[in-house]
Design a protein that fits this description.
By secondary structure, chain A is an all-beta fold. Chain A has no helices and twelve strands. The interface between A and B is medium-sized, with 24 and 27 residues.
Chain lengths: 114, 114
């Protein structure tokens, strides 16, 4: 069975703090993809990153960085110097078959206070 | 380029009424997905199409739900008759060549059944 767990339901930080959102996944497939999506208060789902199971290199995009570790089945997301505009619900998701079912975690609600 | 378009953005209806949600995928994308988001169940896949053909409808909750994709640029999700427990946000997403590629989501339709 495939599963994504985001153990942190809510996180609250003060602006400029760094924050890490945890994601742990389960799959028996050897080929799979991991995703992060952002859902701001306006409600849309915004794609942030896609990572395949054969590429464990960390990735940095501006203030965002992702740490993928197959040994611990984790794909964590760090926001450096958080800003109020980062306030949103963040979803980690897994896709492990060609068809395309995305398995989502329950989401982590991040609140960044000024 | 235009993203995934959904209409209506908000729908309020009374129990027993028929509801039709509409989606226009990104031009050129050959996969289309319908998801539902609720507080209790999170984000869950209802059905997906490949080249206008339904591939997996195992997530459709019951016979009251039906989905069609008459052509590559249009899909509908119909609920008949609607019930209060159908109240949720319904998202449409599209991708090129399946779920291992990035799914881009529409803005969602917030459905309220009174």
């Amino acid at each position: 069975a495939q599963k994504v767990t985001q153990a942190q339901t809510e996180i609250s930080v003060v602006e400029k703090e760094d924050v890490t959102l945890d994601c742990v996944y389960e799959t028996r497939d050897t080929t799979y993809y991991l995703f992060w999506y952002k859902q701001p208060p306006s409600g849309e789902l915004v794609f942030l990153i896609r990572r395949n199971s054969f590429d464990e290199q960390n990735e940095i995009s501006g203030r965002y960085s992702w740490n993928f570790q197959k040994s611990t089945s984790s794909f964590n997301f760090t926001i450096t110097a958080s800003q109020v505009v980062d306030s949103a619900v963040y979803f980690c998701a897994l896709s492990a078959n060609q068809g395309g079912k995305l398995i989502f975690g329950q989401g982590t609600e991040l609140s960044v206070k000024p | 380029d235009a993203g995934v378009i959904q209409s209506p953005r908000h729908e309020v209806t009374e129990m027993g009424q028929e509801v039709t949600l509409r989606c226009k995928p990104i031009s050129g994308h050959d996969y289309l997905f319908w998801y539902r988001q609720t507080m209790m169940r999170g984000l869950e896949l209802l059905i997906y199409f490949n080249n206008n053909v339904p591939i997996d409808d195992s997530g459709m909750p019951e016979d009251r739900f039906s989905a069609k994709m008459p052509n590559a640029s249009f899909s509908t999700l119909k609920i008949q008759p609607s019930e209060p427990r159908d109240s949720a946000v319904y998202f449409c997403a599209s991708s090129l060549a399946g779920g291992l590629n990035t799914q881009y989501f529409g803005p969602g339709t917030r459905l309220t059944v009174l």
